[in-house]
Amino acid sequence: MKIMTVLMQHDYGVLSRDASFEYTNIHLPTIELFGAENVFHFDFYVQFKLAGKEAMNSQLIEEAKKFAPDIMLFCLFENEIAESTVQELNTFTKTAVYFFDDPWRQKFVRHWIQYFRYFSTPDYYMYRQYQSEGLIQAVYSPFGYNQDIYKKKELPITYEVSFVGGFSSYRQWVVTLLRKAGLEVHVFGRGWDGDQKWITTEEMVDIFNQSAVNLNLSNGVSYNLFHVLSSFTSPKAVKTLLMNRKIKEQVKGRHYEICGCGGFQLSYFVPGLNLAFEIDKEIAVFEDPQLLADQIKFFLRHDSLRKEIAEAGYQRAFREHSAKQYLKNMFEKISAGSL
What we know:
about 350 residues; Rossmann fold
């Protein structure tokens, strides 16, 4: 089978940054599945920036005709791909679009599923919703993680508590609560104040391995009264609170990545997480951020329990949640489909 991946190689298309999530967890595992000679990558965003929308779309069609893929898998960004391009591609190959945030980007999703032959969702309940609507082109495909990159390294613990992720007013509020409770919380990611730099994927994997507690914090809109009131003390926090369009949560790639590194994970709860991991046995969750500090202190005091949960989460991730296996299932369903 020949696959053409149409996605950004670098995180958000910024060449100075590390590989994007989709390149790491979609393109590279696809090469593992089918071999480099059967996979062609087209970085639409680089060409969009270099030549403009019209020229990039023309080049995409030309390259697709030359490579003649059985399936073309797209990871969209904004409006760089033309609808007419997808329609032309549909005349000689099967097109599919891989959605990341469909629970809260429904207007975007509903527009594009009119053009692609198939589309994926990582969210189980959205998949059931699509099924109830008779959308037989929907494919359930959780994110998973690249097992060649996210690994257990058996590194010594360096961080008591860590969080890897971009700044949001809610995340800042939670971190502040924890620090006020006497916890040493190390934060890594874009947008935070201070000297936090953009970290590489390799550095992130090390952090997951070196942390006693890996926090997984939502970046969605939170209307917790105490959070909203605290936001008014920071113009930056007010801006992120008002501009955040994410109104629904979902199981994310980070859930699989932390466990895939053998890290102990303490995450916000989201429906569907219990389908991926057994709560309290393979992953720990919190519901009230104002009680989170006490939960962290409990797990820091009980090393054996923390390590037991981390190991069980690692075994579950390694056994069931590889990106390669999820992609294999998706490509098989698309290949066997009649659309």
